[in-house]
Each structure stands twice: as C-alpha cells, then as structure tokens.
Amino acid sequence: xxxxxxxxxxxxxxxxxxxxxxxxxxxxxxxxxxxxxxxxxxxxxxxxxxxxxxxxxxxxxxxxxxxxxxxxxxxxxxxxxxxxxxxxxxxxxxxxxxxxxxxxxxxxxxxxxxxxxxxxxxxxxxxxxxxxxxxxxxxxxxxxxxxxxxxxxxxxxxxxxxxxxxxxxxxxxxxxxxxxxxxxxxxxxxxxxxxxxxxxxxxxxxxxxxxxxxxxxxxxxxxxxxxxxxxxxxxxxxxxxxxxxxxxxxxxxxxxxxxxxxxxxxxxxxxxxxxxxxxxxxxxxxxxxxxxxxxxxxxxxxxxxxxxxxxxxxxxxxxxxxxxxxxxxxxxxxxxxxxxxxxxxxxxxxxxxxxxxxxxxxxxxxxxxxxxxxxxxxxxxxxxxxxxxxxxxx
Length: 394
Fold this sequence. Notes:
By secondary structure, this protein is α/β, with parallel strands linked by helices. It has helices spanning 20-36, 67-76, 99-112, 127-142, 161-175, 189-201, 219-222, 236-251, 282-294, 301-307, 312-323, 327-345, 350-357, 362-373, 377-384; strands at residues 8-12, 39-42, 60-63, 80-82, 94-97, 118-123, 148-152, 182-186, 210-215, 230-233, 260-263, 267-269. The chain has 3 domains: 8-97 and 236-266, 3-Layer(aba) Sandwich (Rossmann fold), CATH 3.40.50.2300; 99-233 and 268-274, Rossmann fold; 282-379, Orthogonal Bundle (Arc Repressor Mutant, subunit A). The longest helix has 19 residues, at 327-345. Residues 390-394 have low confidence and may be disordered.
C-alpha cells in the first residue's frame, strides 16, 4: 500500500449533533485514513480556514458540503467529497446511502409480515425521504398494493409549540383514514418515535394495530423505551470509508468514472414495533409465525401443517388466498433473507451459511439461491460485503 503520511485531510460533518449518521461516517473516514497514514483533522468550519500565499493547508476535504464549503474548495482548488445527500450544492462528487433501496427493504419487511395496508411518513423537502418513498411505493406496487403518505415540513418539528401541535394534529388526521392493521415506514428513527407516541395517545397498539419501521438504527432511540423500534441500518460507516477512498483518487489527480455512488443499507434490524404477522386469516397468521420462528431449521410444508394443527390442502389453499403465495415459497424466501444477511455481514463459509439459514446442505442452498437470485452466493457476497473494503473500480 502506498501510504502518504504528509496528506492533511479536513473532515467537516457537524459531529456536535452526535447522530449515528455523522459519527459512523467519521469512523469510516478515519479507518481509511489510518490505513493510508493520513493526518485527519475534524474541522466543523473548514470554509473559514485562512488561506496563505501557498494556498490551503488541506490536501482534501470530506464534508456535508454547504455552499460555503464548496466555494472554499473551489477557490483553493482542494478536492472535496460530499457525504450530504440534501446538500444545496449540486454536481459535487459524493457518496451517499441508497435510500431508494431502504424503501424497498421496508416494503419487503412489511409484506413478509402479511400486511396489506401501508403508509409512509417523511419530510417533504428531504431528498432522502423522497427517494425512500419512491422505493417503498414501487415495491408495494409490484405486489399490487398502494400506500398513503404523510409528507410534512421539517419546520413544524422545531421552534414554537404551535408548529409541533400542527404536526401532531396532521398525523392524527392522517390516522383517521387508516385501515388497520397497517405497516408504516418512517424516514428517521426520531420521527418514528414521534409516530409511536402519537399512536399510543390515540389508543392504537404498536405493533398489533400499527407496525412501525424507522430509518438509521439509532440504538439509543430504537431500544428504549418499549416498544423497541425496528429500523433500517443505512451503512453509514461504509459511506465514510468509500468517501475517503474516492477522495484519495481525487488527490492523486485521477478522474472518477461516476460522480456519485450509492451504498446499500447494511440490514433491517427487527424489533418489537413490527413483531406482528398481519393476516385476516388466523390460521395463516399462525403459520407465518411458525415459519419465521423455525425457518432456520430444515423444516418443510408438512412441519408447518403439523405446527398449526390443520390439514395440508386446506392450509395451502388458505395461504394462497390470503397472501398470494405458497407455503414453500415463504419458507424459501425467509431462508434466503437469512442467508443473504449472513453472506453480507459474516465471513462464514457457504456450508455454514446454508446450515444457519435452514437449507439441508450447501449444494441445495447454492441451487436455490442461484435460481431465485440469478447469481451464485459467492457473487452476492462479493457485491454486498464491502464494509471497509476499497473500491478500486470507482
């Protein structure tokens, strides 16, 4: 590895907010910097750094790029990598989480719980919320469902009490049109907590009446108080790491084939707020619970039938009518989701992944995975297991 200890890089991420997004992006940047021998400096106001006759003292900048920072980088000819999707400055090279994919993941999670009523809640001016909403509703549409949306102004959530009361009132008005049970995806964990609290004040039970998914996996928000909050981990550390890797190329005078790259979310972390299998048919709901709790074992349709004490033909018919899919298909889907998580998040062998996901052996796992996903497990791992790995092709 060609290290250059002389390189001096400024990191401007508004870390005083202490959100996981900023802290993990910083951690990813710093990990790459340590590997390369950079001298990194946290600098919340890099645009106000004095410019000497020889120019700026920074070789590169990683920032939530404000207009002032972008202007400073241009004036000093300092390579700049943007990690703020909602930045007012366009056409900057950047690395961002894939919020469209997070919307798809939220829809897939709620669909797997048997929901047929859906909603989305997010700030109307945020690019990330709009992208997430697009992914959410597109995935639902593929399965024949629609969703209602509550898009609100961020200004209602700050400042005067009247603004907050207007926000709460708008959510309660939205609730009047819900058909229960309903699954809701929210663009941030904090706002998901607001929704949970408003639901409770409106005598709605989480997760029996309303299943809620947040975004960001801020553990301090998600894990207390009950109900704990299911959330999508956006992979912010990988955003920081890849931003640093791309900045290295810019500092080397290289051009980037793609100005912007997107990092897929790491995972969806299930907690109590979606601990429900919504189905009008109680027998099918029982079957869904049984499959979810036992799919890591080598179960088959007969095991599910015995688990809910009914006959096979009747259960298969009811399953198809209620969910539009087969029992064996749901078993395979959950096993594949478990397997994909192990492939992306662990270094387990293919044989170990197959066993952990409930496949009878590695060969069976390989065939099923390749048939459904269109690629072998090893290729999926290579594509998705990129945490803290260099992206030399970008």
